[in-house]
């Protein structure tokens, strides 16, 4: 739970940094590119610092190693195969990371912030459901109650009567749900089969691919880049990297169906508390209810 708390803290800080810039004339695409850049550079520095590739030997062909975990899902890939696995899964995840960001922007424009925020957060249902079906990670009865409470708190904090009345399941919402959920699920896919010692390779691959897609997209839009946008991106990139870093560590000891609802709901709670303490924003009554529900969910899940 300590690693999960650190992941939640990093996730919340991203939103609070964006909150600081929301009234400024900023280029979100430049910020996103700078965020991915600093994240993959930091991952690369961590790989060099830890000397991850020192003594790395080719024990068996990667395909043969993969066949072993297909036959036995308890099998963990060798160091060499973990590196290859991290590059492949990380590269695919990088595409999902960028697409989820892009479709969030589109969905906010088409559907409003409330519905978009809700659907983005509920994307955690994808890793939850897949983990239950594929790996039989069933929560206890009490944990189920906590999970349901955390999911309801997400709905309570994001939805309003107006957003519910105008709700319409548009393609942007469906794609946001899928891309966001698959981006989160990639963390579990890596952690389940590869050695966590090589998670920095996985994270490097994610943010390297996302950076190049993002910077290409930014150049095509011909947006103006300022030093403020770049430094804001750098400030976001570090917690963005470590939110995934600590989430992967937490999945070593927590069931996916437990970790993801708490990660999502906990982030929302900290964002609201941070908004109160830093930006002097009042917490709406329904958000106060959601915070209480999340705290109760945390207690139930840890019983």
Number of strands: 0
Helical/strand content category: mainly alpha
Q: Report the sheet with the most strands, covering strand number, pairing sense and barrel closure.
A: none
How many domains, as an integer?
Answer: 1
Q: Give the uncertain stretches in residue-range form.
A: none
Radius of gyration over C-alpha positions, nearest whole angstrom = 19 Å
Tell me the helix content. over 70%
Average pLDDT, rounded to a whole number, is 83
Termini separation comes to 12 Å
* Count of alpha/pi helices: 13
Please write the string of helix (H) and strand (E) elements: HHHHHHHHHHHHH
Taken as a percent bin, the fraction of beta residues is: under 5%
Overall 3D shape: globular
Subcellular location: Endomembrane system
Main location: membrane
Keywords: Membrane, Transmembrane, Transmembrane helix
InterPro entries: EmrE-like
Identify the notable features of this structure and list them briefly.
single chain; 303 residues; mainly alpha; 13 helices; 0% strand; membrane
Written account of the structure:
The model has no long low-confidence stretch (mean pLDDT 83). By secondary structure, the protein is mostly helical. It has one domain. α1 runs antiparallel to α11 and α4 runs antiparallel to α9. The protein contains 13 helices and no strands. The two termini are 12 Å apart.
Brief write-up:
Its main location: membrane. The protein contains 13 helices and no strands. By secondary structure, the chain is mainly α.
Write the layout of secondary structure elements.
Elements: H1 2-21, H2 28-50, H3 62-71, H4 79-111, H5 113-122, H6 125-135, H7 141-158, H8 161-165, H9 171-193, H10 199-221, H11 227-250, H12 256-279, H13 285-301
Helix pairs in contact: 1-11, 1-12, 2-10, 2-11, 4-5, 4-9, 4-10, 5-7, 5-9, 6-9, 6-12, 7-12, 7-13, 9-11, 10-11, 12-13
């Amino acid at each position: 739970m300590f690693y999960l708390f650190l992941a939640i803290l990093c996730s919340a800080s991203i939103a609070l940094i964006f909150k600081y810039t929301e009234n400024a004339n900023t280029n979100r695409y430049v910020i996103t590119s700078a965020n991915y850049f600093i994240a993959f550079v930091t991952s690369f520095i961590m790989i060099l610092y830890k000397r991850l590739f020192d003594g790395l030997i080719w024990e068996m062909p990667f395909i043969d190693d993969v066949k072993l975990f297909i036959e036995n899902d308890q099998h963990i890939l060798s160091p060499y195969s973990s590196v290859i696995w991290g590059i492949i899964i990380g590269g695919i995840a990088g595409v999902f990371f960028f697409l989820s960001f892009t479709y969030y922007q589109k969905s906010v424009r088409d559907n409003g912030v409330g519905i978009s925020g809700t659907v983005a957060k509920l994307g955690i249902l994808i890793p939850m459901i897949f983990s239950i079906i594929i790996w039989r990670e069933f929560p206890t009865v009490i944990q189920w109650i906590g999970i349901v409470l955390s999911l309801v708190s997400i709905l309570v904090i994001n939805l309003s009567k107006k957003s519910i009345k105008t709700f319409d399941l548009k393609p942007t919402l469906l794609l946001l749900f899928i891309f966001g959920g698959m981006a989160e699920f990639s963390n579990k896919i890596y952690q389940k089969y590869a050695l966590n010692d090589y998670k920095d390779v996985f994270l490097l691959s994610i943010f390297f691919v996302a950076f190049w897609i993002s910077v290409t997209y930014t150049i095509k839009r011909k947006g103006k880049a300022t030093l403020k946008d770049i430094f804001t991106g750098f400030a976001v990139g570090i917690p963005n990297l470590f939110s995934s870093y600590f989430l992967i560590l937490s999945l070593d000891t927590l069931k996916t169906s437990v970790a993801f609802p708490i990660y999502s709901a906990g982030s929302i709670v900290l964002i609201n508390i941070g908004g109160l303490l830093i930006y002097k924003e009042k917490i709406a009554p329904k958000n106060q209810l959601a915070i209480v529900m999340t705290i109760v969910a945390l207690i139930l899940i840890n019983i």
